[in-house]
Specification:
binds magnesium ion; mainly alpha; about 200 residues; single chain
């Protein structure tokens, strides 16, 4: 995969802008089954990464990804901080361990498994894993970026009928049913933004 500095700064900006535009809707989702701060937490994390954007874009790609993960852990807070942080930190470490020819879907698989261990969660528990695993599967099948984005959004919607098994929402038991998981939603929004950015700037 190509890893020039403009890719890093472009992705940081597109993620920041997406979360800024959806802060209120993510908070509304979190108010339904949590404490209502997922949008503002994510916005704080993205703004912290964006503030470091100039420095991050000078680093080798794996180091930049790991550093972004660290910044997310320190700034997002809540349950999402350690989960998104683990995802990016593991992705960075895995990218460093592999050479440039290895499949990104395999890198992502390692990183998602680390998130699952960190959150002691699995697919079907109504978390961001319910978006991450389908994205990984789509990547492994070499689906086009537009299709990966659609799969991410559909996967987030499919968390609505699930009963939350992990995190604050799990205290609600059956009352968590009928609401989209906020973490799954932010994950789908970010994935969609990243796919559209790559489609536009790095056509396959
Ligand atoms: Mg919350």
């Amino acid at each position: 995969m190509r890893t020039e500095p403009v890719l890093v700064s472009g992705l940081i900006e597109v993620c920041r802008a997406t979360i800024a535009a959806n802060t209120d809707s993510l908070c509304a989702l979190d108010r339904a089954i949590g404490d209502g701060d997922h949008g503002t937490n994510m916005r704080r994390g993205c703004e912290a990464v964006s503030a470091d954007g100039a420095k991050l874009s000078t680093l080798p790609f794996p180091d930049a990804v790991e550093e972004i993960g660290l910044t997310l852990v320190m700034n997002i807070g809540g349950a999402a901080g350690p989960l998104y942080g683990t995802l990016l930190m593991e992705m960075g470490r895995e990218l460093r361990r592999r050479d440039e020819t290895s499949e990104f879907s395999m890198v992502l698989k390692q990183a998602i498994d680390a998130v699952a261990r960190r959150g002691r969660a699995q697919e079907g528990d109504k978390t961001l894993l319910d978006v991450l695993y389908p994205i990984q599967a789509a990547l492994a099948e070499r689906s086009p970026l537009g299709e990966i984005a659609i799969r991410a959004q559909r996967s987030a919607s499919q968390t609505a009928p699930m009963k939350a098994m992990r995190g604050r929402a799990s205290y609600l038991g059956d009352r968590s049913i009928g609401h989209v998981d906020p973490g799954a939603s932010s994950c789908a929004l970010l994935t969609t933004a990243i796919c559209h950015y790559l489609e536009e700037h790095y056509p396959q």
